[in-house]
Specification:
With 475 residues, this protein is α/β, with parallel strands linked by helices. The protein has 14 helices and 18 strands. It folds into two domains: 232 residues, HAD superfamily/HAD-like (Rossmann fold, 3-Layer(aba) Sandwich); 148 residues, Roll (Nuclear Transport Factor 2, Chain: A), CATH 3.10.450. Helix 3 runs parallel beside helix 11 and helix 3 packs antiparallel against helix 12. Bound molecules: alpha-D-glucopyranose and magnesium ion.
Length: 475
């Protein structure tokens, strides 16, 4: 994959990078922070959504590319992604920010979310840094749209590009207000990029042309791109006095290079990173100890980087075989939820011993009068539901069966009680089911290190992911 980039303006948001004329057409070193100079940063609704949830600066903000970075398309079991999910929900969700930054349009991004067990990010940057949305409901950042409108005329961009017979228009879904995308053969890409840049310059348009994957050619406003979008977000947080304590950017290919150019971020190039990103690094960021090339693939490389830079806990609960003799660094209600559903998966996959001791210990973690409202609406006794697990030991052994939780957020509602909300997902064979879950749990002793007691669990089907057979849905 090669990335070509036309550079047309003189200011730079990214740290000074050694000027190498050969590089100009190769890497997305963005150079037009016109938005930063001309547009005061306003608090947008989206940032409010994020800040209201966090209350304090994010402890860690992870900004990750998706294809071949967070998502490993060669990992059919999605294990590294599921390991990351467990780590994030147990240790980071409550006080940190997850940002996905993808080349995909909203349409293809949503398709990927249906295919892979992905978490819900706090912020989604799509279409190569041209669309920013916040929260689960994906509230768009209109301020960013205004920034990108400057010196951008989509019609001229498209019309001029259509005169190049080497360019084949990508699918309609991938044509976005600030992104016009084509396919072009590798050997023609550099010449086309150069010629196009000249044409646009004559029109007074400041565009950025990025060639990716040996086939994709994206034309964006000069101020767009993954790095510029991140710089824009960081500036917003700074204005609000809420800059993340640490930021980790994660990528695998040339159009992620911009992310690694943002000052003060840590960066991980996953082990499977493309040659052009490694080359960009060798030529521009070598001695930068804040950037590593992981020895692990995709999400496992991200976990590795969290450990390497000491950004916080880096032991995914999914990797812990037996919690009974594991001392948690930082017990919290989120961790309790992750732990419970991992046990549930391993029990049904027969990956823990078929021992009554386990169920007894689970029951000991339930209030004797605790209740469970099944998504069918039937109310049951929580300890009875744990008993009900006995007959399901190993029923998913050797089968495709995975369980994960998403968006686990706890609100303290009493001195020792939390209301925990999350989505619980189950992949069984080809089918995926999910529930919106609310749990009330309380700490066993004067502080959380004594563990938690489950008091009430209430589930309702997630629209579009209802289970057909209520009887096989335990929790
Ligand atoms: C994604 C997008 C495509 C784009 C490519 C490279 O595959 O769907 O439109 O050209 O990323 O950025
Ligand atoms: Mg990628």
């Amino acid at each position: 994959m090669y990335t070509f980039q036309s550079l047309t303006s003189s200011h730079s948001l990214v740290p000074p990078i050694p000027q190498n004329p050969n590089l100009k057409l190769h890497f997305p070193i963005t150079s037009n922070p016109s938005f930063a100079l001309k547009f005061p940063v306003q608090v947008c609704v989206g940032i409010r959504i994020i800040m209201d949830r966090l209350k304090a600066p994010a402890r860690l903000m992870i900004v990750s590319d998706l294809d071949h970075t967070m998502v490993d398309h060669h990992d059919t079991e999605n294990l590294s992604l599921l390991r990351f999910n467990s780590l994030w929900e147990a240790n980071y969700r409550h006080d940190s920010l997850l940002v996905f930054s993808t080349g995909r349009s909203p349409t293809l991004y949503k398709e990927l979310r249906k295919e892979k067990p992905m978490l819900t990010p706090d912020i989604t940057i799509m279409s190569v840094g041209t669309e920013i949305t916040y929260g689960n409901s994906m509230v768009p950042d209109d301020g960013w749209v205004e920034v990108l409108n400057k010196k951008w005329d989509r019609n001229v961009v498209k019309e001029e590009a259509s005169k190049f017979s080497e360019l084949k228009l990508q699918a309609e879904t991938e044509q976005r207000p600030h992104k016009v995308s084509f396919y072009v053969e590798k050997d023609k890409a550099q010449a086309v990029t150069k010629a196009l840049s000249e044409v646009y310059e004559k029109h007074g348009l400041e565009v950025k042309i990025i060639y990716s994957g040996g086939m994709d050619l994206d034309i964006l406003p000069q101020g767009a791109g993954k790095g510029q979008a991140l710089a824009y977000l960081l500036k917003k947080f700074k204005t609000e006095g809420s800059s993340p304590v640490n930021t980790l950017v994660c990528g695998d290919s040339g159009n992620d290079a911009e992310l690694f150019s943002i000052p003060e971020v840590y960066g991980v190039m996953v082990s499977n990173a493309q040659e052009e990103l490694l080359q960009w690094h060798a030529e521009n960021a070598k001695g930068n100890t804040r950037i590593i090339h992981a020895t692990e693939r995709c999400a496992a490389g991200i976990i590795q980087a969290i450990g390497h830079f000491k950004l916080g806990p880096n032991m995914p609960p999914r990797d812990i075989a037996d919690f009974s003799d594991y001392k948690l660094e930082n017990p919290n209600p989120g961790h309790e939820v992750v732990k419970f559903f991992l046990f549930y998966e391993k029990w049904r996959r027969a990956e823990v011993e078929n021992s009554a001791v386990y169920l007894a210990s689970l029951k000991a973690d339930c209030c004797p009068s605790g209740t469970f409202v099944h998504p069918s609406g039937v109310e049951q006794s929580l300890p009875e539901c744990i008993n009900g697990l006995r007959s399901s030991y190993g029923d998913k052994q050797g089968k495709q069966f995975r369980v994960w939780v998403d968006g686990v957020l706890a609100t303290q509602v009493g001195s020792d009680t939390w209301l925990v909300k999350f989505d619980k997902w189950e992949l069984s064979g080809e089918e995926r089911h999910a529930t919106k879950t609310t749990a009330v749990i309380s700490s066993k002793g004067s502080d959380v290190s004594y563990g938690f007691t489950w008091i009430r669990v209430h589930q309702t089907w997630y629209k579009g992911y209802e289970g057909k057979d209520d009887t096989t849905w335990h929790f």
